[in-house]
Specification:
By secondary structure, the chain is mainly β. The protein has one helix and eleven strands, in the order αβββββββββββ. The chain has one helix at residues 2-18; strands at 23-34, 37-46, 52-54, 56-58, 62-73, 76-81, 86-88, 93-96, 102-108, 117-123, 129-136. It is globular, with a radius of gyration of 19 Å. Mean pLDDT is 85; it is low at 13-19 and 145-156. The structure holds copper (II) ion. The site of copper (II) ion has 5 residues, from β9. Copper (II) ion is lined by residues 39, 68, 79, 102, 104.
């Protein structure tokens, strides 16, 4: 009898360890300076052993949700659409922030008011789909200096 209990414990333990596996979206917030357009920022944490790519995002709050980034063209930062997804390496965090990669909501059903909560369905392909709650904070200041475009190099 004792042997079978030990065997059951040994089988259960790895399952518990897997419970926190997957993609996490931390500190997600949305901001809008236009009644029809908003942007979403967050920290994408990959707790998996493999790279995961954000393929696309959908939400009832907007007609279209696109993945965007900024590129410099002749000294001017321009927003462009990302076609091949946003990859997050195994065990790494990728920031979606102003001046860098971000999620763009086009054709908002309603203007974004401070304190509103949006639900985004984030498609990570083989890594699964995550429902993420995003709080609207139109007043929030960007942590990164506006004149620097290397968002990953924020020192403080
Ligand atoms: Cu954009």
């Amino acid at each position: 009898m004792k042997l079978s209990i030990l065997a059951a414990v040994a089988v259960l333990s790895p399952v518990a360890a897997l419970a926190h596996d997957g993609m996490h979206a931390n500190d997600a917030y949305a901001r809008s300076t236009n009644p029809k357009v908003g942007a979403v920022f967050m920290q994408l944490e990959n707790h998996r052993q493999v790279a995961c790519t954000l393929q696309g995002v959908s939400s009832d709050a907007a007609e279209r949700v696109e993945l965007h980034t900024h590129v410099e063209e002749g000294g001017v930062m321009k927003m462009t659409r990302i076609e091949d997804g946003i990859a997050v390496a195994a065990g790494q965090t990728h920031a979606l922030n102003r001046g860098g990669d971000h999620i763009m909501m086009l054709g908002l059903a309603e203007p974004l008011a401070d304190g509103d909560t949006l639900t985004l369905s984030m498609d990570f392909g083989d890594c699964g789909t995550e429902e993420v709650q995003v709080v609207v904070d139109n007043q929030r200041e960007d942590a990164a200096p506006a004149d620097h475009h290397h968002g990953d190099h924020q020192g403080h």
